[in-house]
Design goal:
By secondary structure, the chain is mostly beta strands. The chain is built from no helices and seven strands. A hairpin with a 2-residue loop joins strand 4 (about 35-40) and strand 5.
């Protein structure tokens, strides 16, 4: 499970242990003011509203920890939609 923290501009990773969550790590979100997250096919995408980009991360299949893989400029990015 992942969360984004605006202001700190980080992604936090949580491991699910039964019915509880355990912090697993924190990484920079790759931009400023992460607005939305979306996961698909082993990647996590982050819409960074104030820096105007979408950053994507490869997800470690064992830990879920994201590793930055790329970014694209998207002015005023507020969400990620797959079509």
């Amino acid at each position: 499970m992942w969360t984004a923290t605006r202001g700190e501009d980080v992604l936090s990773v949580f491991a699910v242990d039964g019915q509880s969550l355990r912090p697993a790590g924190t990484v920079p979100c790759g931009g400023h003011w992460p607005r939305a997250l979306a996961a698909s096919r082993g990647f996590l995408y982050v819409a960074n509203e104030r820096s105007g980009d979408v950053t994507w991360f490869a997800l470690d299949p064992a830990t879920g920890l994201p590793r930055r893989a790329g970014a694209i400029d998207v002015p005023a990015a507020s969400c990620v939609v797959f079509g």
